[in-house]
Amino acid sequence: MPSEHPFDQHLKQSFDGFEPDVQPDWTGFERDLNRQAPQAPAQVHAGRGTGRLAVAAAVVAGGVMMWVAKPMVEEWMASSEAEASSTLEEHAQADAFAAAWEEFTKELNGFEQDLLDAEGEAALAAAQSLEGSAMPAANQDISPEESLGLAVTSKNVGLDNGSLNATTDAMGSGTAESEERLLAVLPFESSVKEACEGVEVAFELSGIDRTMSFLWNFGDGAFSSDPSPSHVFTRPGTYDITLSVRPPSDGMIRTRTIQNMITVLPKPEADFAWAFPAAVEGDKVRVSLMDQTPNATSAQWVVDGESTTSNWVQLDVPGVYPINLVASNQYGCLDDARREVQVGNRHGLLAQARFSPDGDGRYDTFLPHSLLEFQEPWAMVVVDADGQEVHRCSDADQPWDGSLPDGSVAVNRSLYQWTVRCVSPDGEIRLFTDRVRVER
Questions:
Q1: Whose CA, among 47, 66, 329, 415, lies 20 to 30 Å from 239?
Q2: 370 occurs within a structural domain
């Protein structure tokens, strides 16, 4: 609603018909711009130059930072990958334990834990020994269960600070007390304290009812619910062994861990190679066996079923011979490796038994036929009856043409022995040797 106040009416009348007198001076404005225009390019070029220098400086600084930071980044990435791998392995072991524990703890009602290290084990053994020595002489020849106050016959076992009185008969409350005492101790032992990796270790309970539920944790990510399991440790190290037991009577879980119970020693990685002579005379080959086991302290060879400690063996031609190496290290751990050594005759390389270097174009040279298609390295040596080398080649384009080192040629009906050493497609060193006759 418009105002009717006299002041408002007076103000309205004052502005009615008012037009401001505005006449812009465009000519002066253009003149001022023209005076300033010549200075602008210099300022623009200066600004562009400064910007280029700033960009170049930034690029150089970035390159220096990348050069300095690259080793640190690579080290961090390698460390991150190692940590990720370790984390994955830990998660896998945790998942395995969770699954085993969930199966074991079905209908769980309670939990008790007894953690003993090696010193605790020794103290427990000493206490048991003292307890046994405190008994009357007539009771010295007793079982381990009785020495712990677990006898089911009427006995009074005196113990300081709360003795256990097993005065009831075999069918009375003494049985329950004996079971409770066993559950409090959870006695178990292993077949060995030290073992080489790959050796099976057996675990045994002492006096515990095997109808209970059991869960063994071997400390390497493996578990067992067997009352008396056996386990193979595949990696060197020291392992804590944990046993959890749940009797059907009360459903409570008792757990005991023996720290550093099993020490697994590393075994050697057995490996060997062999070497053939460049030339062979006769029907036997002398082979050199070479033990390549890292950190081996001793070696035993088994060649074709015969045991020997010698690194030299003599093999008949032809034949395929199984050779085993049994190597041991400083811990007395053993490992074995098995390979086959093959020595063959002319049939293995499709070699002819005779050739006629008479220049008629037929059988003028000697070279085992199989060598023409060999892709792997090979070398052939030919010797005379005195063992003197007369020809050597490692190329199919260089067969023996019957010529001798002194410039003469092999006489008719003469015998020579050739030897070929080669690498098989599977990487094994093989030898073939036989005789060839010259016929003109």
A1: 329
A2: yes
